[in-house]
From TrEMBL:
It comes from the Bacteria. Residues 747-800 are annotated as: Disordered. InterPro entries: Peptidase_M1_aminopeptidases (IPR050344), Peptidase_M1_dom (IPR014782), Peptidase_M4/M1_CTD_sf (IPR027268). This is M1 family metallopeptidase.
């Protein structure tokens, strides 16, 4: 502890400051602890220049426009040949100020065609052991020599029927128009096509079929029709090739969808079913209508019914007709195996029909959880963003592990054959349903360009998924969102990392860089940087502004600042444009106490310290070793100093102190007598990413308190800062980021005095004679079931 002297010369100091003010304007001295940096400079020209389409506030401008495409689609599933046969009429509305001589079409199924840019550019290597799936992915062995991808049989003018010239460039197709479609005009054209459906287990991506041992298939069909590319004020035509990681950029429109399938199939699709009476049995129709107003799950097509269908054969075909307005895409799932259930969830006074489609292999998980999770998801997401606007929300189980489309999603999560499942399987299924249903909001409503910026839908969606999981269960084992969960990723060598602001197809470890890191960043904004009230208002405002429109990253960044009044440019630069980690080091804490100049106190403390210093090991041993000194033997050797006590308070000391107190104002005297402790904390920014400094103080009486300093504490020196903290109580332990709020990658240097973190534990064991070593299996439910004795009349073992 050091003593601080209080200088009684405040008026003189103020005068000196005033006198030096003008000189300071001319040439301000550089503080000794200054380190030049631009971390808190504005993004400025790093963002696009605002214009009448997109404003500086982040809102759509007065001249904002976006294209629209309406579709009338008729498709048939050829189950015998696993083939889709289709025809469509597209009406394209040119809302742009430009005349367009051609339009670009996405041919996503060409991802599976020979020499597709995705598989051809994919890299990988072989180890001594490689899975079949990995080998198929690396070599593209499943599709390179097969007849996959679109077979375009006709492209024509919708009115005249005249053929249109077109050029296919891998996954893109340009259609040359007879004459440019002018601004504010529309043009309609028609196409016929067919393609073979990929078997998902052999390299399918986002769409395909699963073949079951009973001879039946589950089909999850998406990207099944040629779709318009986006033309906008930012990119012009977004016709970047489809490599598979970067998903889709699409325009809104109204859809009519007619799907012909075998007549024993159950089918779910984007939109409202228009001809339920024609495609459903009387009992299914009754249950379907009941589900629309029921707050309990209603089984529309039962497992018993579907098991009968699995063993039968179709007698003909049925055409299911759907209508979907103001959506950017459509998809469907169909199978004779599909169990179907549903319930109603009210959102903002509107009834939404939540439905699930799943084979019996998904039970008991799917029947118990899926539809309830859908209802919870649209309700919770509506609270944090915009009200769910569509009439239905669907979750389908099949081969696709997780993929989203308007009103419908494809989700994994399947129990063991005996009906048991691990905790990881249960929560994995619930999480993927929340995530994929949540995508209805990002990007199906807030319609960003996924081909360019994966994080704008995956990151934002993963963040709201994290909030939704916690509202499902307070103890939910969330995988992404908590700052400490991103630490291992951010510990890596920055050379191996890419910024969040990286084009989708160029992302390394997209799961971390496009999902987890942006979700974590938003959680840190909400909990630590902005606070929940400011963040929630701004995030909801962004969702409201850009619902059914197409935002860019700059629109998000600007809106979050505009609606909250918080300068976040430093945050976007560090978290989204950079790869530096957070690593704060509490290097030192210096302890000061105010010198009150009270001799009763100061001399007593000085005496105590002097005696402590004199109490050396030599002096302790001399008590027995030196029996009698010279001075002890001869008192004449003593003088004044042998009896002098330098720590005795004299009258002169008392008078000097009284004079000092008389010179103080009441406020100054209160400060002198406050008994405050002053601590100077020295903190290094070893990681590079500036973040708020959060300090926990533990006092000698067993209590504690927390202080927070904003990230701007680093603005004059981004490498090391000193901060003075006052405390009435004596602090015995200091800890940075005690509740793991900022993703600090090294907790070892977060305490002063240094405290060891949890020990690295090792196990002591004897090598078993056989079998594995250590803890239990991954499916406790199955183990518990197998440990139960069989009931009377039953054989032991798992059920078939």
């Amino acid at each position: 502890m050091r003593k601080l002297s209080f200088i009684n010369s405040l008026p003189m100091i103020v005068c000196a400051l005033l006198q030096g003010l003008y000189a300071a304007k001319a040439q301000a001295p550089t503080p000794q602890n200054y380190h030049a940096n631009d971390r808190f400079e504005q993004l400025g020209t790093g963002l696009p220049t605002p214009n009448t389409y997109r404003t500086a506030s982040g809102a759509p401008g007065k001249d904002y426009w976006q294209q629209r495409a309406d579709y009338d689609i008729k498709v048939e599933l050829d189950e015998a040949n696993n083939k889709i046969i289709g025809t469509e009429t597209i009406t394209y509305f040119n809302q742009s100020p430009d005349a367009l001589p051609y339009v670009w079409i996405q041919l996503d199924q060409n991802l599976f065609a020979k020499n597709s840019p995705g598989p051809v550019s994919r890299t990988g290597d072989l180890g001594t052991q490689t899975s079949m799936a990995s080998l198929a992915t690396i070599s593209d062995m499943n599709y390179s020599n097969a007849d996959y991808g679109y077979n375009i049989t006709s492209v024509r003018d919708a009115k005249t029927g005249k053929p249109l010239k077109y050029t296919i460039n891998q996954t893109m197709m340009r259609i040359d128009l007879p004459q440019p479609v002018q601004s504010k005009q529309s043009y309609a054209f028609a196409m016929d096509w067919n393609y073979r459906i990929v078997e998902f287990s052999k390299g399918g991506r986002r769409t395909g079929f699963e073949a079951f041992k009973d001879g039946n298939n589950v089909y999850e069909i998406a990207q099944f029709y040629p779709r318009l590319c986006v033309y906008d004020d930012v990119t012009g035509w977004q016709h970047k090739q489809y490599y598979s990681q970067g998903e889709f950029a699409l325009s809104f429109g109204n859809f009519k969808l007619a799907i012909t399938v075998p007549d024993d199939h159950v089918l779910g699709a984007t939109g409202e079913l228009q001809n339920a009476a024609q495609v459903l049995t009387p009992n299914q129709l009754k249950k379907f209508e009941q589900a629309k107003s029921s707050d309990k799950v209603v089984v529309i097509a039962s497992q018993e019914e579907r098991e009968k269908a699995e063993k039968g054969k179709p007698s003909g075909k049925k055409t299911w007709i759907f209508k979907a307005d103001n959506v950017r895409d459509v998809a469907f799932a169909t199978s004779r195996k599909y169990i179907w259930d549903g319930k109603m969830q009210e959102v903002a006074g509107k009834k939404v029909l939540c439905m699930s489609f799943y084979p019996k292999e998904g039970n008991p998980l799917w029947g118990k959880y899926s539809t309830e999770v859908i209802a919870h998801t649209i309700k919770t997401y509506s609270k944090f963003s915009v009200d769910y606007p569509y009439p239905v929300a669907i979750s389908c189980h099949g081969p696709v592990g997780g993929m989203e489309y308007p009103m419908i999603s494809f989700n994994g999560g399947r129990p063991e054959a005996d009906g048991t499942y691990s905790e990881a399987t249960k929560y994995g299924m619930i999480s993927v349903i929340i995530h994929e249903v949540g995508h209805n909001f990002f990007p199906m409503i807030v319609n960003n360009d996924e081909r360019q910026w994966m994080w704008m839908d995956e990151g934002l969606n993963t963040f709201v998924q994290y909030l939704t999981e916690k509202e499902w269960d307070k103890d939910y084992p969330t995988r992404r969102g908590e700052p400490q969960a991103i630490v291992d990723y951010m510990k890596q060598d920055p050379k191996n990392l890419v910024p969040i602001m990286t084009m989708s197809d160029n992302l390394i470890n997209a799961g971390a860089s496009a999902y987890a890191k942006p979700a974590t960043a938003l959680n840190i904004l909400r909990e630590t940087v902005m606070g929940r009230d400011l963040f929630d208002y701004a995030f909801k405002e962004y969702s409201r502004r850009w619902a059914f429109k197409s935002p860019t990253p700059a629109d998000f960044f600007r809106t979050m600042e505009d609606a909250s009044g918080v300068d976040l440019d430093w945050f976007w630069k560090g978290w989204f444009y950079g790869v530096e980690p957070v690593n704060q080091d509490l290097v030192e804490v210096e302890w000061f106490a105010l010198d009150t100049q009270n001799p009763e106190i100061s001399k007593a403390e000085a005496k105590k310290q002097a005696e402590a210093k004199r109490n050396t090991v030599a002096r302790q041993r001399d008590k027995d070793y030196i029996k009698e000194s010279v001075v002890d033997k001869n008192p004449d050797m003593k003088d004044f100093y042998n009896s002098y006590d330098p720590y005795k308070v004299t009258e002169a000391d008392k008078k000097k102190y009284e004079t000092y107190l008389a010179s103080l104002t009441p406020d100054e005297r209160k400060l002198v007598e406050s008994g405050l402790n002053f601590y100077t904390l020295k903190v290094k920014n070893k990681g590079g990413l500036p973040m708020p400094v959060i300090v926990k103080m533990q006092y000698e009486d067993g209590t504690d308190s927390l202080v927070r300093f904003p990230a701007e504490i680093w603005r004059l020196n981004d490498q090391q800062i000193s901060k003075v903290i006052t405390s009435k109580k004596k602090v015995v332990q200091w800890t940075l980021d005690p509740y793991r709020e900022i993703a600090d990658i090294d907790e070892e240097d977060n305490s002063f005095p240094r405290q060891p973190t949890a020990p690295t534990r090792f196990q002591l064991f004897k090598n078993p004679a056989g079998g594995r070593r250590g803890g239990g299996g991954t499916n406790p439910m199955q183990e518990a079931q197998q440990s139960q004795p069989p009931k009377a009349g039953q054989q032991g073992g798992a059920k078939n």
